[in-house]
Amino acid sequence: MGHLRSLFEAMGFSNVETFIASGNVIFDSKSKSTKALESKIERNLHDSLGYKVATFIRSISELAAVARYKPFHDSDEDGNVLYIGFVADGPGDESKQRLLSFTTEVDDFHVDGREVYWLCRKKLGESDFPGAKFEKTLGMPATLRNSNTVVKIASKYS
Description:
Number of domains: 2
Mean pLDDT: 94
Low-confidence stretches: none
Strand order of the largest sheet: 4-5-3-6
Helix content: 25-40%
Strand content: 15-25%
Number of strands: 6
Number of helices: 6
Largest sheet: 4 strands, antiparallel
Structural class: alpha+beta
Oligomer: single chain
Order of helices and strands: HEEHHEHEEHEH
C-alpha cells in the first residue's frame, strides 16, 4: 500500500492515504471531473505497474450516502454480508436484468446508480454466485467491497 500511495503522490495528488490493504486510496485533487481523474489514474497505474487497473472514484459525500443506503431489510441480520460493487457508470437495463436473474434465497441484488449491492445470506463460499462472476454478469469492470469497509471509510473521512 505504501507503493500505491507513492504512485498517487507522484501523480500530483495531495493528502494521499490508503485504507486497509485492498486498493482504497483517499486523496485530494483540484480536478472536478471524476472521469478525467479515473482516466489519469488508470493510465498512470498501467504505466507504473504494467497491468490495467480499473478505477472507481467516489467523493466522501457520495461514499457516505452509499454507506447509509439500506437496499435490503435483512442486511444486518447475523450471517448476512452486504457487498457493494462500484462501477464507472450505472449498469444498463440488460445488465441489471442479467444480474437480478441470479437472485436466490441466498443471494439478492440491487442496483442504485453507480453502485450494485449484493446481499449474501450465507458465507461467500456457500453462495452459488462466486465473486468472479460479478463483473462478467454485469458486462463491465467493477470492484467489490464489504459494506463494513465502506462504512469505516465514510466514518473516518466524513
